[in-house]
């Protein structure tokens, strides 16, 4: 059974408010959340840990001009993509809770989106097969196999019903030195610009969605207390308002 976290304080501030200036839908039926996945890469090659963040285009309806981690919507084919390895058993077990989708689909989406938005490869060198699922052609062409074992599931959040775009997002964290295939720098693209490795403290000074700010706190605690044994927070909206359990 999940343990219940407090519903006030930091949990309550994890969601963007209805009057925060962003687009809010009123008088319409709330859209069904779409599965999504996000990857938080952490570097430890400096005096303080750094995470990779980029700025979303101002033309986006969902979180325009906000700084976020790489990620995006799960494609139906992602769960069938070839991989170098699978999730660690404890990670897969947590991802199976309260979902019918294959756990590997979430991790592979996070890896694919990170590649598409930053050019970085969470992968190992491998001779890839000639066949591939939709969306993975460029990855295969590099003879790189995505690998899931470095990813840790650190949180899940569902966009509140008053937003025009809603996602049921799984957040993953991985050590960059372990996860990345090489030391290439991130490259700005159409989805994310101003890509940069920033300390957790400097990240908090950026224009962030509140859920991203919340996850930065989760990362900081995990980095400071690596032996901490507790499940990922699950942030969502209920009839009584914002709430969170731990999976």
UniProtKB/TrEMBL annotation:
Region (Disordered): 1-32
Keyword field: Hydrolase, Magnesium, Manganese, Metal-binding
Gene Ontology molecular function: hydrolase activity, acting on acid anhydrides, in phosphorus-containing anhydrides; metal ion binding
InterPro entries: NUDIX_hydrolase-like_dom_sf (IPR015797), NUDIX_hydrolase_dom (IPR000086), NUDT19 (IPR039121)
Cofactor: Mn(2+); Mg(2+)
Chain intervals with Basic and acidic residues compositional bias: 15-32
Signal peptide positions (record): none
Transmembrane annotation, as ranges: none
SUPFAM superfamilies documented for this protein: Nudix (SSF55811)
Record-given protein name: Uncharacterized protein
């Amino acid at each position: 059974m999940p343990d219940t976290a407090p519903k006030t304080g930091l949990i309550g501030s994890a969601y963007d408010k209805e009057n925060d200036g962003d687009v809010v839908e009123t008088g319409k039926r709330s859209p069904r959340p779409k599965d999504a996945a996000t990857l938080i890469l952490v570097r430890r090659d400096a005096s303080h840990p750094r995470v990779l963040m980029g700025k979303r285009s101002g033309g986006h309806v969902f979180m325009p001009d906000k700084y976020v981690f790489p990620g995006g919507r799960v494609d139906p084919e992602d769960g069938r993509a070839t991989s170098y390895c699978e999730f660690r058993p404890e990670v897969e077990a947590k991802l199976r809770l309260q979902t019918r989708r294959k756990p590997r689909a979430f991790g592979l989406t996070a890896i694919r989106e990170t590649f598409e938005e930053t050019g970085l490869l969470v992968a190992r060198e491998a001779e890839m097969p000639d066949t591939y699922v939709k969306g993975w052609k460029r990855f295969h062409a590099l003879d790189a196999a995505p690998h899931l074992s470095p990813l840790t599931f650190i949180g899940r959040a569902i966009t509140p019903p008053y937003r025009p775009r809603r996602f049921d997002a799984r957040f993953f964290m991985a050590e960059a030195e372990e996860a990345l295939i090489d030391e290439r720098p991130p490259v700005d693209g159409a989805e994310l610009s101003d890509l940069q490795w920033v300390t957790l403290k400097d990240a908090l000074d950026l224009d962030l969605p509140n859920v991203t700010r919340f996850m930065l706190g989760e990362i900081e605690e995990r980095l400071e207390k690596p032996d901490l044994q507790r499940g990922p927070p699950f942030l969502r909206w209920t009839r009584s308002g914002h709430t969170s359990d731990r999976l």
